[in-house]
Model the fold of this input.
Amino acid sequence: DALENQLATLEAIASEPGEEVLQLKETVQWLHLWQLVSSARLRLAENNPGLAAGDVEQAFLTASAFLEESPNEKDQILSIVIERLDLAFSSLPDDPTSAARDLESAWEAIEQALVELLEIEVIQVDIEELETLKGTVEPTDTGVSETGGTPTAAPGTPEASPTPDG
Done:
């Protein structure tokens, strides 16, 4: 009897996925959603609102199922994504510009969720500082002549040795 209880307990533990597995599943769901939104954006860039609408619809259904299936702290982000996908779908095919803006907003929201989920450190780049740094970097000598002629060896490069046949 005690052995059966232990076996039942072990089976229950084994049937429940661990936290790492659940986090991996959530990450894959967010990545799939991101892929669908990216595909819709690409279709719009290719001037194909019909295929974009199909991708938007698929993304909407995926996000809705994701929200129902696993409520968590990212529900607010998912709600924003769903709202933007709904707006994008209602804009197609008549107003692809509005649809593109809504897809961009959905894409950014998904990116935010992925950054939080994967604990990615976001680096902010100051364009003025980057331009200043760019001006201080000196090009290095590659040893190749830029005169358009035959490349020459850099100083200190060993000469080619003759082949034994030659």
Remarks:
- The radius of gyration is 28 Å.
- The chain is about 65% helix and 0% strand.
- Helices lie at 2-15, 19-45, 49-69, 75-91, 96-118, 127-136.
- The longest helix spans residues 19-45.
